[in-house]
Write a structure and sequence with these properties.
single chain, mainly alpha, Growth Hormone, Chain: A, 3 domains, 21 helices
Length: 519
């Protein structure tokens, strides 16, 4: 048999057009994570939500999305990835319209939950379809690079789109913009996207319930740690999450059609790629939480201005993903991923140059290194994970990778946010001016935002002293958190080099495929 006959079929214009179409729903799903940032004051004025309702407006979308990814990945394998994509487009479009015209806070929360369900069907479906569109490793790497760049860019673009729309329209427009995108997908997808499904896959209801009980409490604990620190009230959530996780893992090894096939972790590099994904998203979300508040509360930029400035690193990111894919074919994925981690760690370490009176260019330069490095990692680790999986498991594996990313992001916010809060409180206690009322002292020590409020209440020289102390304390906390993030990313570099094979030969893939496809 000739070498040419063994070469996978190369993609054409149809396949690359399909990738562009798949990026549209992915973009709006990722945008909806952050689209409420600027709309909150307008929603508060219109719907008068309680503090608890306002919190749920933000969190319910991410909670439902993360909790259902594994389930929907299995459903995609069972009923067909294109079919689930179209069902998700309908659900997301309807939920967007319901959110846009919500007459009450409770209605908006319910609509956001439905948006999370729609998003959970769209994300693994898009990635699974990309996996099945491209047989050639190099082309698939480039396609997944585009997918990863759009995914990362959507979170950053969300606040900007929100701010622009709110300048001209009412708050519901931030949701209504999703509707034409979903309508376009419903029109084009049946003609452009191929259908694919697994004839052996089954949806196991107990596994779905256990995955929800495992993921949702863990996400809740991590978010609460980032916002308020540890409290005894979080213990039941941690116990339920840990118990459900153990039960979920045990069930996957016993049933004939597991939601997460344990045999995948026997493939050299697959388990390491999941760890790499967690560490990579740890850095992405950790950097976001540190830099966003620094730009707004320390350097004094408005939320919209901060969002616009934050888009600058995305210019470099757009080139980083395809470049990383090309380099991986020459020197191997682990080397490129490890280099990406080292570059991002250097960006975090260099953030020590950012002070309370620094120019924004220092922060943007450091953030660009972080973004380039971590997007390169995300591109390659996602492509590796879905490439090693058999085609009939593409949906469930895509969902597993995305769930690992959600957990890593929550972990990054919790760990780095907790370090930041602890250092901030300790430093501020020594920096605040003497004679400050105890109530104001305690309030300022909670967060930088609270300190800004206290400074405004005091006014004059004492207010300026409080504000300067708070900004200095925040920067000190940010520096420690940046070093912690850099250390974690260097661990990621070691994992990439040690746990991932440099190349997987055609012989290895051929040997692994039968073992993974049958049970």
């Amino acid at each position: 048999m000739s070498e040419t006959s063994l070469r996978p079929r190369l993609a054409g214009r149809r396949e690359w057009t399909a990738v562009a179409v798949l990026c549209l729903p992915l973009l709006v799903v990722s945008m909806d994570v952050s689209v409420l940032f600027f709309a909150v004051p307008h929603i508060a004025e219109s719907l008068a939500p309680t503090a608890t309702q306002l919190l749920w407006m933000f969190d319910v979308y991410g909670f439902v999305l993360a909790g259902l990814l594994l389930t929907m990945g299995g459903v995609a394998d069972r009923i067909g990835r294109r079919r689930l994509l179209l069902l998700g487009a309908v659900a997301f479009g309807v939920a967007s319209a319901l959110a846009a015209y919500a007459p009450s806070a409770g209605w908006l929360i319910a609509a956001r939950a439905l948006l999370g369900i729609g998003g959970a069907t769209l994300m693994p479906s898009t990635l699974a379809i990309v996996r099945n569109l491209f047989a050639d490793d190099g082309e698939r790497a480039k396609a997944v690079g585009v997918w990863s760049a759009v995914m990362a860019g959507g979170v950053g673009i969300g606040p900007v789109i929100s701010g622009v729309l709110l300048e001209h329209f009412w708050w519901g427009s931030v949701f209504l913009i999703n509707v034409p995108v979903m309508l376009a997908l419903l029109v084009v997808a049946p003609f452009l996207l191929p259908e694919s499904r697994s004839v052996t896959s089954r949806v196991d209801l107990p596994s779905s319930v256990l995955s929800l009980l495992a993921i949702l409490p863990v996400i809740h604990v991590l978010k609460s740690l980032a916002a308020d620190g540890w409290s005894v009230s979080l213990l039941p959530y941690a116990v339920v999450g840990a118990g459900a996780s153990v039960a979920f893992v045990r069930r996957q090894s016993r049933i004939s059609s597991p939601m997460v096939d344990p045999r995948l972790f026997a493939v050299r590099g697959f388990g390491g790629s999941v760890v790499v994904q967690v560490i990579g998203m740890f850095g992405v979300m950790g950097n976001a939480i540190l830099v966003t508040q620094y730009l707004q509360s320390v350097l004094g930029y408005s939320p919209l201005a901060s969002a616009l400035w934050s888009l600058l690193p995305s210019v470099a990111v757009g080139a980083a993903a395809p470049t990383a894919a090309v380099l991986s074919l020459r020197i191997g994925r682990p080397v490129v991923m490890a280099s990406g981690f080292v570059l991002a760690a250097a960006g975090f370490a260099a953030m020590r140059l950012a002070e309370a009176d620094s120019t924004i260019w220092v922060t943007l330069a450091c953030a660009s290194f972080v973004a380039i490095g971590l997007v390169s990692v995300a591109t390659l680790v996602t492509e590796y994970a879905i490439g090693v999986a058999p085609a009939d498991r593409a949906g469930s594996v895509s969902a597993l990778v995305e769930t690992a990313g959600e957990l890593g992001g929550a972990l990054g916010m919790a760990v780095l946010g907790s370090i930041l809060g602890a250092v901030y409180a300790a430093r501020l206690d020594a920096l605040l001016p003497a004679g400050l009322p105890q109530q104001m002292h305690e309030a300022a020590a909670q967060t930088l935002g609270e300190a800004v409020v206290v400074a405004g209440q005091l006014g004059g020289a004492r207010g300026e002293a409080v504000l300067e102390a708070a900004r200095t304390a925040y920067v000190d906390g940010m520096h420690v958190s940046d070093l912690a993030a850099a250390a974690v990313l260097l661990v990621g570099a070691v994992v990439a080099l040690v746990a991932l094979p440099r190349h997987r030969s055609a012989e290895q893939r051929a040997a692994e495929e039968p073992a993974l496809s049958g049970r």
